[in-house]
Amino acid sequence: MIDLDLEVKIRRLFHGEKWPIATIARHVGIHHTTVRRALRRDGVPLEAIPTRRSLADPYVPFIQETLATWPELTASRLFEMVKERGYSGGPDHFRSIVGRFRPRKAAEAYLRLRTLPGEQAQVDWGHFGHVEIDGTRRPLLAFVMVLSWSRWMYLRFTVDQRMGSFLAHHEGAFAEFGGVPRVLLYDNLKSAVLQRIGSAIVFNETLLAYSGHQPFEPRPCAPRRGNEKGRVERGIRDVRESFMPARTWTDLADLNRQAADWCRNVRGARKHPEDKTLTVAGAFAEEKPRLRPHPSAVFPIEDRVEAVIGKTPYARFDGNDYGVPHTRARRTVTVVASQDTVRVLDGNEEIAQYPRSWGKGRTIETPEHIAALVAHKAKAAESRGMNRVFTAAPNARRLIEVLAERGGNIGSSVARLGELLDAFGAAELAVAIEEALAADAPPVGAVRQVLDRGRREADKPTPIAVSLPDDPRVRTVVVPPPPLGAYDRLGPKKGGDHG
């Protein structure tokens, strides 16, 4: 595009001074095709603009006829066609010639769409760069809903574009409007329209259910029809040009307070674009009674996702791990998230609740869950040893109770009883414990003495406790003793020298 001063100069030189196109182009320092475009915009017909003779002149009738039949035919394909017919010029010059004769689409005019009060609102997201929140860089998004008749705007900023956030902002808009429009127009958002081929539309099921609760009709605007969604697009542009420049805020809550104040006091004070006797706020006051009542029944608008708890008791949501009780390991739970809270449900039972984190890669848990897991692991380790001993020798439970009454170290005693069980077997251990209890000698050392004495009286070797791996290939190995006669042959020979 050239500026207005240069375009006026081209007109004066062409119409007033009768300069040819090439002379004008050299004089003002631009390409001759730019001069031609400027003259065409001025209403000069193509045939009135003198051109230099060209190698393509004999092919102009063919070019015009072909473009009349196939107006969308590319210049490169047309160049190949005339080349087959003898054209010897280059493709760049030929492309400019095709541009002169290609049929122009008529400029499309749009009707100004008018709606009744309370009939329609338009919805869209606006992207406003990125923001640092909870140590993570996230996109800064603006949810915008504009009432089509009054132009009253609901504006809220967020860093989340999930379905739960989408519906939560609908709820906020309807609460601020004091009612619900009959139609909500969407710009083919994925939150609203999952698939679309022509007039065949597949709506998001959650949005459909929500629209039946409110109720309103969700309606996608037609593709490439900017006039249908002009209220919300101009609203987002207004936010970019009037609200955001040179604005500072401390956090999202502060930014949203400023946004609500701007919509109410700045945008609301402007003159209504179609009725200068009204302000936007005044038009909204007239439109508000025409909105449908906002239902009092609650619709579940939170995000709900399933999470599988692995060996470690955490549920993952939005890139963070939220702790759950260790008793829910290896189960599938439901994470229910709002803008402020994350709840973890096992069926209908709430097992954990946390403030929502907008960071990434964080672990959010409670000291109670950690302490319970530590205690459980310690108790489990202890109970594994106890259960083995008590199962093999049931009277060992009474022995441990007596030791506990006398202040003995029962953890160490259970471990030593386990070693004696491995060395002597369950039958001998049970007999020895019974004798120790009868003699009122509960320490494990007394049990060991009884076991050793029994082995001596039976003329059996006392076993040596050896820690072997729990592998039957090792535990079942039998090492035969070597014959002692082999050692006699190692002695000195008769009559030989001991040295």
SSE arrangement:
Elements: H1 4-16, H2 21-28, H3 32-41, H4 60-69, H5 75-84, H6 91-101, E1 120-133, E2 136-147, E3 153-158, H7 163-177, E4 183-186, E5 193-197, E6 200-203, H8 205-213, E7 217-220, H9 230-243, H10 252-267, E8 271-272, E9 275-279, H11 280-287, E10 303-308, E11 314-317, E12 320-323, E13 332-337, E14 341-346, E15 349-355, E16 363-364, H12 367-392, H13 396-405, H14 410-424, H15 426-438, H16 444-457, H17 472-475, H18 485-488
Helix pairs in contact: 2-3, 5-6, 12-14, 13-14, 14-15, 15-16
Strand content: 15-25%
What overall geometry do the principal axes of the alpha carbons give? elongated
- The structural domain count equals 4
Record the strand order, biggest sheet: 3-2-1-4-7
User: Given the helix and strand composition, which structural class is it?
Assistant: alpha+beta
Q: Rounded to an integer, what's the Rg over CA atoms?
A: 44 Å
* Portion of residues within helices: 40-55%
Give the uncertain stretches in residue-range form: none
Which oligomerization state do the chains in this entry correspond to? single chain
CATH topology of the largest domain: Nucleotidyltransferase, domain 5
Largest sheet: 5 strands, mixed
Can you count the beta strands? 16
CATH architecture level-2 label of the largest domain: 2-Layer Sandwich
Give the termini separation.
118 Å
CATH class of the largest domain: Alpha Beta
